[in-house]
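quick one, 133 residues, struct below
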Amino acid sequence: MRYSSRREAILRIVQGTQCHPTADWVYSEARKQLPGISLGTVYRNLKLLSESGQLHAYEGAGGVSRFDGCVTEHYHFRCQRCGVMVDVQEPVDRELDRRVAERTGLRVNYHVLEFRGLCVYCQQNGTESVTHE
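---
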């Protein structure tokens, strides 16, 4: 992949946050640095960065993807009220891949595990539909 200053800026934006942003959020942040950048450019570069393994893309409810600059294996928690996604510092269970492969005859390369519930903010505030990225 050829170097692109816009792609590099988008990568820095995603890697510089813990909020697992949407493409729209990245676009909003990118416009602060690159006022002429288009939403299409952000989408194309997020796709290229995730295809190259420099970012991870996670599809969520309604087809909205979130992006993660941390590319080491880890789990996630997603709040069922506000949709916030956070990293879970728990070792990835490789034994699970082996057990499923052994029981099913399938070749398991990896698994994606996402915990669901209420984030601390929503627990404390009893909010129904607040986003707090």
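The helical segments are 5-15, 23-33, 39-51, 94-104, 120-125.
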